[in-house]
């Protein structure tokens, strides 16, 4: 884990154009889906992120061949797999490792996956994943911190998810592709990443209908074959840079992204006074004056995303008027608020609602990132604060934002990464390829 810091000088409107990377939360399940066939899969538009590095390390630990080409495309070949095991020391750094459980169990009949611990934003249980697999006939024991699952062949079953769960839906959908018979997932997550995964599985020969709706039907097939898949653009990275442009009263164009992925975010930014020009594969945003405060309430897609609430808290912190941010998905996703208050933000917390009275200016202060999207909100606040802000523990940011300082520099921000010690062990080290120390992540 690297202890780099980001030093940001506030006060400059962001201007210019950057490209949006592939979606982290689509790449992770699709890498797990490669375990469902025994031929080499090619995954394109993969973001160069710590969580992707961690997933590659996890697959390699199992004996899966993963090669990376110079355009950041991955080739994943599970034919050489020899272990169906996800160890605690990897899973504890990335809970999404749970996504290998469904594919391993469905394709190889067994899996031993460490229970993902909670994380800063909440307890993050996986009961829905395990209950669904049990309904499909899996024998699952949870002991010594590990999920031990076995099943000669899963059988299709009707599954009602009592809470909308993104990775829960993805895990069960992947498991159902090779099960015997039909599986129906009711109250399924509708996120675009679920649709992207379903499209990849369908191109591998799976029979899936209804991805993107509350009811997904999967007809099991005997085997799947390889396919090539381009990961869809990252809608949360898109939303984060849109807010950065609005916050700094700038004028920015985001390329290689899709407006329909961020409908609820665009609506709120227009309400805040931003001029938005959606294009085919791009979004242009301009903010000519101080943003107006807006109120948001998080909920499953297509409602306002929980992964964007910290960023809107930062926007409201300097907006005209009072806005509220209500978090309904996670029980502890307000850690950034204490750090923003240290920068002069006027925020009251009442249960799961933050009431934010906009101030004219934020002051720079040394702040500490606590989780991925909270750290993004601190970077956003630093872009408008007076003076220089030092954001510590930015390994959280490196998990979800590819080349954040390069992209912000390209938009005219004054930002520098201060190396905090040995580079993370998770660099994409590949025999024969020399990575310049401190190379773009
Ligand atoms: C996914 O997490 C995303 N991660 C999260 O993004 C995102 O915030 C979250 O969905 C909500 O949209 C990935 O896709 C890798 P959930 P996930 O299961 O699937 C409860 C980021 O910033 N629940 O949709 O783990 C849970 O406690 C990350 O990129 C159960 O009770 O979230 C929560 O309250 C952070 N039992 C609610 O459901 C379960 O078995 C939604 O969680 C599973 C979940």
Question: Characteristics of this structure?
Answer:
single chain, globular, 24 strands, binds ligand EPZ, four-stranded mixed sheet, 14 helices, 23% strand, 441 residues, alpha/beta
Q: Can you characterise this structure?
A:
With about 450 residues, the chain is α/β, with parallel strands linked by helices. The chain contains 14 helices and 24 strands. The protein has helices at about 25-35, 50-60, 90, 100-110, 125-135, 165-175, 190-205, 235-245, 265-270, 310-315, 335-340, 370-385, 395-400, 405-410, and strands at about 5-10, 15-20, 40-45, 65-70, 75, 85, 110-115, 140-145, 145-150, 160, 180-185, 205-210, 215-220, 230, 250-255, 275-280, 280-285, 295, 320-325, 345-350, 355, 365-370, 390, 415-420. It has a four-stranded mixed beta sheet. A four-stranded mixed beta sheet has the order 2-15-17-16, with helices on one face. The longest helix is centred in the middle third of the chain and has 13 residues, at about 235-245. Residues about 425-440 have low confidence and may be disordered. The structure holds ligand EPZ. Ligand EPZ binds near residues 125, 129, 165, 307 and 400.
């Amino acid at each position: 884990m690297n202890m780099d810091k980001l030093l940001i000088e506030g006060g400059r409107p962001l201007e210019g154009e950057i490209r949006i990377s592939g979606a982290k939360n689509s790449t992770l399940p699709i890498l797990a889906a490669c375990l469902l066939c025994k031929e080499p899969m090619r995954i394109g538009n993969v973001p160069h992120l710590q969580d992707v590095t961690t997933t590659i390390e996890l697959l390699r630990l199992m004996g899966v061949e993963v090669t990376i080409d110079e355009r950041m495309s991955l080739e994943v070949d599970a034919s050489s797999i020899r272990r169906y095991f996800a160890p605690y020391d990897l899973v504890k750094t990335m809970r999404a490792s749970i996504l290998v459980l469904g594919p391993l169990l469905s394709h190889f009949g067994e899996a031993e996956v460490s229970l993902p611990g909670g994380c800063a934003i909440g307890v993050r249980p996986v009961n829905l994943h395990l209950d669904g697999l049990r309904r499909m006939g899996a024998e699952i024991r949870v002991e010594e911190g590990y999920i031990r699952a076995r099943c000669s062949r899963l059988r299709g079953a009707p599954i009602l998810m009592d809470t909308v769960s993104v990775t829960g839906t993805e895990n069960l959908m992947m498991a159902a592709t090779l099960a015997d018979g039909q599986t129906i997932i009711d109250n399924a997550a509708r996120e675009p990443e679920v649709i992207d995964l379903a499209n990849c599985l369908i191109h591998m020969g799976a029979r899936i209908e209804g991805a993107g709706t509350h009811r997904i039907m999967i007809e099991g097939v005997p085997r799947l074959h390889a396919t090539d898949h381009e990961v869809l653009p990252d809608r949360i990275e898109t939303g984060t840079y849109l807010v950065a442009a609005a916050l700094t009263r700038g004028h920015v164009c985001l390329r290689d992204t899709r407006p329909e992925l961020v409908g609820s975010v665009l609506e709120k930014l227009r309400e805040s006074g931003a001029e938005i020009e959606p294009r085919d594969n791009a979004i242009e945003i301009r903010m000519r004056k101080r943003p107006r405060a807006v109120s948001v309430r998080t909920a499953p897609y297509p409602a306002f995303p929980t992964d964007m609430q910290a960023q809107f808290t930062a926007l409201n912190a300097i907006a005209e008027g009072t806005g509220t941010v209500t978090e309904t998905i996670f029980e502890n996703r307000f850690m950034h608020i204490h750090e923003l208050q240290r920068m002069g933000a006027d925020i009251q917390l009442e249960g799961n609602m933050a009431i934010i009275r906009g101030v004219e200016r934020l002051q720079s202060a040394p702040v500490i990132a606590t989780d991925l999207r909270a750290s993004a909100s601190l970077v956003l606040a630093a872009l408008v604060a007076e003076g220089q802000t030092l954001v510590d523990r930015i390994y959280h940011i490196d998990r979800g934002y590819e080349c954040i300082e390069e992209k912000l520099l390209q938009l005219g921000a004054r930002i520098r990464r201060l190396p905090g010690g040995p580079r993370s062990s998770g660099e994409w080290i590949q025999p024969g390829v020399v990575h310049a120390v401190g190379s773009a992540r």
